[in-house]
Amino acid sequence: MSIALPPVAPRRSLVVRRSTHSPALTLVGALVLVILLTIAPWIVPAQFATTLTNFFILVIMATMWNLLAGYAGMVSIGQQAFVGLGAYATLYFALKGVNPFVTIPLSALVCAILAVPITYLLFRLRGGYFSIATWVVSDTALLIIGTIALLGGGTGRSVPGLQNLSPSETAHFSYLATWFVALIVVTGTYILLRSRMGLVLASIRDNEVAARSAGVNVRAARRTIFIVAAAGCGAAGAVLAISQPFVQPSNEFNLQWAAEMLFVSMIGGLGTIEGPIIGSIIFFALQQTLQQQGVWYLIIVGALAVAIALWLPRGLWGAFRARFHTELLPVGHWVDQLGDDD
Amino acid sequence: MSLLQLEGVSKKFGQVVVGEAITFQLMQGDAVGIVGPNGAGKTSLFGMISGDISPDSGVISFEGENVARLSPAKRARAGIGRTYQVPRPFEHMTVFENALVAAQQGARARGHKSYDIAFGALERTGLGPLANRPAGSLTLLHRKRLELARALSTSPRVLLLDEIAGGLTDLEVNELTTIIRSLRADGIAVLWIEHVVRALLSTVDRLICLASGVVVADGEPKEVLASDAVRFVYLGGKRIDEDAS
Ligand SMILES: Nc1ncnc2c1ncn2[C@@H]1O[C@H](COP(=O)(O)OP(=O)(O)OP(=O)(O)O)[C@@H](O)[C@H]1O
Ligand SMILES: [Mg+2]
Description:
The structure holds two protein chains of two kinds.
Chain A: E1 15-17, H1 23-43, H2 46-71, H3 80-95, H4 103-122, H5 127-146, E2 157-158, H6 167-194, H7 196-206, H8 208-213, H9 218-243, E3 246-247, H10 249-252, H11 255-268, H12 274-290, H13 295-311, H14 315-324, E4 334-336
Antiparallel strand pairs in A: 1-4, 2-3
Helix pairs in contact in A: 1-6, 2-6, 2-9, 2-11, 2-12, 3-4, 3-5, 3-9, 4-9, 6-7, 6-9, 11-12, 11-14, 12-14
Chain B: E1 4-13, E2 16-26, E3 31-35, H1 42-50, E4 57-62, E5 65-66, H2 72-78, E6 80-82, H3 95-105, H4 111-124, H5 140-153, E7 158-162, H6 170-185, E8 189-193, H7 197-201, E9 206-211, E10 214-219, H8 221-226, H9 228-233
Parallel strand pairs in B: 3-8, 3-9, 6-7, 7-8
Antiparallel strand pairs in B: 1-2, 1-4, 4-5, 9-10
The complex binds adenosine-5'-triphosphate (ATP) and magnesium ion.
């Protein structure tokens, strides 16, 4: 039993606000953005819709990776395991006659369920060993999937159920599906980080030892986040399989997915919700403007990553926030001290 | 029944003995000081009680239950609160949020109840006006206060305080001892490591002296400080200067 501490002096009930600026403003801004992005495929050129689809796939993955590494201290370089498993779950369900768009939540669920036993293996390891083990898990998944003839073995197979759509319809619908998944993932992450779990994660991020002695069950929090991130990346894999409906192991389980998640979260800022989104915008802007430069594109992207790691360890958004004290998506607790104007 | 009981607790880091058959007990509302030279194993002892360090052998009972194999989080929830000698604030969270996470996880409180516990702990430790500050911006003095506030927010039955008075002015030490005496009055037991003996003597009614992991004295503070064993520990039998800080 614990002893409740009586307050020093009787005082009026404490008022705790959850944002420093008016939530109405954020809400209106978010609503406008949601409407614009929903009608985007009808107002932008067709090939740009495909770019936007890829952009939101990256936003989903980076948001999940940021939860893992930026909050829960799990540097996974094997997150492509769940991208691949999500894509293959979609292929499997589509082969069984399920509408590919309907498979998205199913594939996310499959990945969440698969993640549970995987945590019991991975959580025996720490730090760098954990990271390498995640990669081993991903390669193991790739090898196993490659042996299943129904799923196209090593060469891959196209996702059925999309052929009766015209190419532009496919582009529009897969964009919408991706955008809605991204919206759900980012909103869900925001709600998660505003909850008690958000404080738990922030405390683990800042000081794991102190978090434990403050009563935080670090392992349970990590397990939850690993499962959530698996589901999110699984959904990303599902929309990937729909937008590029030829599913093959070397593409879906590509290490490049993990590299992009890591890069984007780092330049945007780990440990913030906005960071991975801003990182994704920068990454895509660079890609669009520099892709023609071939090798130089890679050199510039690499140099940028190194520069930010060295000089802006909390990423662009982290640095911006520290300077201007603003948050687009506030998760904090702000005490209004009655009768005290500090 | 004793609140906290250690029996034969031993621990080595390689060749370094930090605990050698440590045995003592603490009753509800006790206030006990721990002194000993640098490297005696005082902080390690706290680590073993709070669960950060697992002892090689021995029993640690809290409220009659052996907790030696429980995780630090479980022990915090059971009522063992601790501060760190080198403060470990959650730097990117506000002072209030530092206490709040402890109230929600350590004391298992929710909603307004957790707000009241956390803010109550801040007010008690004089951090109320700094509630909205990022913890990373605090001075050392305030970081030490925050350690206390966070431990307090877990609603502990025993508080382990590791050198929270080091480097404070006389006035600040007086403030701190007032706070700690008020905690005792609420029935919280206190185990307090401190080199500032004067602060200890004004607050505790028992003193334990630890040297190389061994309890060399345990008893009434003045008697412990005057004992041959303790005088020997503090070099050449010179008496500890009670006014030194
Ligand atoms: N995790 C560890 N690994 C190895 N050695 C350690 C570890 N923690 C502490 N030690 C060693 O154990 C000894 C006791 O350390 P401890 O911090 O418990 O001493 P202390 O009595 O708190 O000293 P101080 O008064 O300086 O705070 C020291 O020699 C220290 O170097
Ligand atoms: Mg110490």
